Amino acid sequence: RWEEGSDGKGGREKATVQWLLLVVVGDGGREGYGWLLLVVMDQRDTGPT
Fold it and tell me: Model's pTM, two decimal places?
């Protein structure tokens, strides 16, 4: 199912990022948020290649 299409994979990855954001922001707070932001930015940069 993952290799069904780039669109599907991207959507799933984006959903995971959003879920991680909620978890990290809820548990980690500012520190976790800042760290996750860097990860998200890096993923977004290397995502649509």
Answer: 0.30
